[in-house]
């Protein structure tokens, strides 16, 4: 039994909003779907891209990254 890998990506949108996303798709596949998304949208917004990506990867989601200190 092989474990499913999860990948984490940093992404900026046209509003210069930084988010991190989690996906079960490797980098080349996420890049492919990003290019397809860009062909059909005039503005690139992270939340909209995640909704589009979920059509191909139901596990895709924006994740919040917080600092911790010790």
Instruction: Find the structural class using helix and strand composition.
Output: alpha+beta
Task: Spell the H/E element sequence.
Answer: EEHHE
Mean of residue pLDDT values: 92
Shape verdict: flat
Rg (C-alpha, Å): 13 Å
Number of helices: 2
Strand order of the largest sheet: 1-2-3
Q: Quick one: how many beta strands?
A: 3
Oligomeric state of the chains?
single chain
Report the sheet-strand fraction. 15-25%
N-to-C terminal Cα separation, in Å?
A: 37 Å
For the report, how would you describe the main beta sheet? Answer: 3 strands, antiparallel
Written description of the protein model:
- The protein has a three-stranded antiparallel β-sheet.
- It is α+β, with helices and mostly antiparallel strands and 70 residues long.
- The chain has helices at 27-40, 46-53, and strands spanning 7-12, 18-23, 61-63.
- The N and C termini lie far apart (37 Å).
Topology:
Blueprint: E1 7-12, E2 18-23, H1 27-40, H2 46-53, E3 61-63
Antiparallel strand pairs: 1-2, 2-3
Task: List the keywords.
2 helices; three-stranded antiparallel sheet; 70 residues; alpha+beta
Q: Could you give a quick summary of the protein structure above?
A:
With 70 residues, the protein is α+β, with helices and mostly antiparallel strands.
């Amino acid at each position: 039994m092989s474990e499913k890998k999860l990948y984490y990506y940093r992404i900026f949108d046209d509003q210069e909003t930084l988010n991190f996303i989690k996906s079960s798709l490797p980098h080349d596949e996420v890049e492919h779907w990003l290019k397809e998304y860009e062909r059909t949208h005039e503005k690139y917004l992270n939340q909209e891209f995640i909704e589009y990506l979920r059509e191909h990867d139901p596990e895709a989601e924006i994740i919040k990254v917080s600092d911790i200190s010790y």
